[in-house]
Design brief:
Largest interface: A-B, 27 and 29 residues
Shape of chain B: globular
Number of strands of chain A: 11
Radius of gyration of chain B: 13 Å
Number of helices of chain A: 0
Distance between the termini of chain A: 37 Å
Structural class of chain B: mainly beta
Distance between the termini of chain B: 33 Å
Oligomer: heterodimer
Largest sheet of chain B: 7 strands, mixed
Helix content of chain A: under 10%
Number of strands of chain B: 11
Largest sheet of chain A: 6 strands, mixed
Amino acid sequence: RKEVEQDPGPFNVPEGATVAFNCTYSNSASQSFFWYRQDCRKEPKLLMSVYSSGNEDGRFTAQLNRASQYISLLIRDSKLSDSATYLCVVNIGGTNAGKSTFGDGTTLTVKP
Amino acid sequence: ETGVTQTPRHLVMGMTNKKSLKCEQHLGHNAMYWYKQSAKKPLELMFVYSLEERVENNSVPSRFSPECPNSSHLFLHLHTLQPEDSALYLCASSQDGQGAREKLFFGSGTQLSVL
């Protein structure tokens, strides 16, 4: 089983749609969770950190469910510019604080 | 605008060549990383440096040799690579590499092709 698993996608949605991605992690000792965005042929960029019970930033909402070991990313009112690959990242901290584990990514295409 | 710069952006090399990738961060961070991203695969951590000391070497073949002369610069020296080493190599930095909530800032990457 992979340490971090994401919905494989791709997700193709019309502008204005609401879309949600899920990510599960296998290590119950995981401490920190992040969503990164990666545009085609570019570097990943931090989209959101996910702490405790989750957080919201504009159209983006991230949720954490420690009991079920998953995090989610909800995008409301999708824009064309939201088209990208979304990477789920988990860090277990401690002596492995430098080791962030990345999921395979979920590709989103928003169409007019 | 990214505070982490990588050069070159693209590199084509033969299996007998020796080349180096360079990374520089302008964020005042103390930790730097090399990641490899192959097609259809997740990012793979290769090396971590914290305060210029290597704290992680993730079972990377010896044909990849990192160097961190100071907290702002990181190199990846390449020699006798194989075609399967062709990938996007990403440099990243973070505050100090010691906390679980470390946020990674990536450079734009070097697209490497080994012929």
